[in-house]
């Protein structure tokens, strides 16, 4: 597939903000940096990250596998089972995670003002430099959708050194992928980078084959006082979607196809990011355009078109104590099913400040005000003004960082939500206690959510639930033994309950109480590393089962093993996923009866990359 649609070499979404370097040079940096947990531009204290080296050595083929197996994030909403529909869930929101977990690409939002999920599966895994995960509400920095947390996918776009990477991956069920990425200084001040990747897979189930073709290209310039980066990207995903099947059918034939649909998704992104040093402050500007065009058969998404225009301006100081910004967004959405174009305009202003109280204590506080205007038709319009706020006390004691944080975050009702009835925005108030050191981090949280937006299958409409709650804890740990063996993992326990209305006292469906993973890594020498991981998900109610009338799913364990070899610029890895051939379901939904999407059995993947 390398020769198909790859003539469109694109430039990916650009970096987001810029910081001042000690040698008076302005370097392009990512706005969210997991290594700066108490920064005024970082969402929360407790975070976790995965690097490109760890991804390559693990033998993972898709970004969904990275989220699930390396970052211990449960993927939800994959009714097809190919890995192209799944979305990571932070905070226990289940099927609505796509609207309550904010996905950033180099610090810029990928979430949509419609029910269309961000198409993260089309992001080339070979282009990823790092992924940072920040649990908890982050509405002050990022606005709508940052209720459960924020995930920032960072690509190789810093353009700071010559680099060329060639990669190829093959695996079970016809998986084939190949690509090349490069960055090159054109002069002392000018930089260029590009990525091309093509992927195809036949699929485990019948009628689930797909192909991804993606290109990116970027050009930037850096001087003593300013930087800018211009970007354009283009991707095409061609896939067949076989939906969930009734459970009895899946028990007889796990490869059985459900409803048949064919869908082509063409996505474009263009952006310009600039930074100016005034001597005492740093000014940043972002101009962005993103579009998604869908065409298909037997699907309501046929001939669907989504366009988003954005403008952001920020001012920050070099002491990392204050950031002020304004975000303007204009979105339009058309689907033949509705026979009308909908519009959503948002104007937002935010401020965040960090104050030191003594040598080891700091306070981060901030506020965001947002005004959103939705127009679904000439006779249906809604305007709302709402806000986010936070206060975070951080104290370092010995080698431990302690934090107590209170925040308010919100989520707009998207344009699809408002089709039948004009809905209220969803508001979440959260209190979080956290502690971390080099080997262990933990957090306790409790959230009260008002007007949570869900899909009520009884009414066949999106509705507000007056009161819901989330309480839980999370532990992340890592321990090195003799420098050769590393033992790490995570465990989260979440109780998601409905606190009012017809479903008062019921558990929120599609949210397991426990999710965890444990990983052993053995570095035999500088060249060979073996990795064994086990991932656990407890029982849960199916999607849409708000009255908890169906049986809960079975808890399951999935184990993977991989071996990698590195020498110079070469990295090769062999991975076996679902090592013990565990039978479980990607997806379960209440359609009056239980419909399921069976997960893949044991698969084998081989990956080779070389960096020049």
Kindly summarize this structure in a few lines:
The protein contains 5 helices and 34 strands.
Overview of this protein structure:
With 612 residues, the protein is mainly beta. The protein has a single domain, classed as TonB-dependent receptor, beta-barrel domain (Maltoporin, Chain A), CATH 2.40.170.20. Helices cover 5% and strands 58% of the residues. The protein is built from five helices and 34 strands. The chain has helices at 52-58, 63-70, 97-100, 139-142, 247-252; strands spanning 17-20, 26-29, 48-51, 75-76, 87-88, 101-105, 108-109, 128-135, 149-155, 163-171, 175-185, 190-201, 210-222, 226-242, 245-246, 260-277, 281-297, 304-317, 322-335, 340-356, 361-377, 380-397, 400-411, 426-436, 440-456, 461-481, 485-498, 514-523, 528-537, 556-567, 570-577, 585-591, 593-598, 603-611. The protein has a 22-stranded antiparallel barrel. The protein has a five-stranded mixed sheet with strand order 3-8-9-6-7. The longest helix has 8 residues, at 63-70. The chain is globular, with a radius of gyration of 23 Å. The two termini are 24 Å apart. Mean pLDDT is 86; it is low at 1-37.
